[in-house]
Each structure stands twice: as C-alpha cells, then as structure tokens.
Amino acid sequence: QVQVVESGGGLVQPGGSLKLSCAASGTFVNLYNMGWYRQAPGQQRELVATSELAGDKQYADSVKGRFTIARDNYKNTAYLQMNSLKPDDTAVYYCYVNIVADTGPATYWGQGTQVTVSS
C-alpha cells in the first residue's frame, strides 16, 4: 500500500508565494514521476508540473517561469514552489506519484490541497 500526503496551500494575495509538499510512503519497488495537477471549479483537471526520476521537469505553459518543482529522492518527497501567484492559479492542487510495485505500475494521488489567490 502506498500513501501520498500533501501539505501547504492556503490563501495568498496576488503576487505572493506558496510552497506545496508531497510525500510518498509505503511499499514499492521504485518511484518514477512525481508532480501536481490542479482543478478549478467547473474546469478540467490540468497538469501543472512533473518531475521525472531521471531529472527532467515539465511545466504547463501557464506556470512556466513562476513555479518550480523539486524532489528529494531520499525522502520520496516533491515540492512545488509557486511564485508570482495569480487569481487564475486558484484551484485544488493534487499531487500524484507513479510507482512500480510487486504487482506492477500504479499511480497514487494525494488528498488535494486548496490554493486560493485573492486580495
């Protein structure tokens, strides 16, 4: 069984910063991609950022230059530093991890954390 626990998020004014954390624990052979999706009310879930085990990182065009994803492979933890936040960044952010377990590959999700950007 794998657990994914998110932390961070909250209310911030436009132009402010927040940092999200995502920690994976449990039994698995290897952990590959880690990242975040977000979903705003009435919108589809969209990929925000992903970090691959080999080191490659990908970002949505809307967050490039403002968000930075990092990971600590020893702690199985990823971080999303969000700067210059805009009201359009308001959404529930969901962390995900791609793992390989004895039963094969799988994806696990965090519980979601609310990010609200408002004055």
Annotation keywords:
119 residues; 4-stranded antiparallel β-sheet; mainly beta; 7-stranded mixed β-sheet
Largest sheet, in brief, is: 7 strands, mixed
Beta-strand percentage?
over 45%
Distance between the termini: 41 Å
Poorly predicted regions: none
| Succession of helices and strands | EEEEEEEEEEE
How many β strands by DSSP? 11
Judged by helices, strands and strand pairing, the structural class is mainly beta
What is the 3D form?
elongated
Helix share bin: under 10%
**Overall average residue pLDDT:** 96
The tally of helices reads: 0
Radius of gyration: 14 Å
Question: Can you describe what's shown?
Answer:
The chain is mainly beta. The chain has strands spanning 2-7, 10-12, 18-26, 30-39, 46-51, 57-59, 67-72, 77-82, 91-101, 104-109, 113-117. It is elongated. The N and C termini lie far apart (41 Å). The relative contact order is 0.32.
Describe how the helices and strands are arranged.
Layout lengths: L1 E6 L2 E3 L5 E9 L3 E10 L6 E6 L5 E3 L7 E6 L4 E6 L8 E11 L2 E6 L3 E5 L2
How would you summarize what this structure contains?
By secondary structure, the protein is mainly beta. It has no helices and eleven strands.
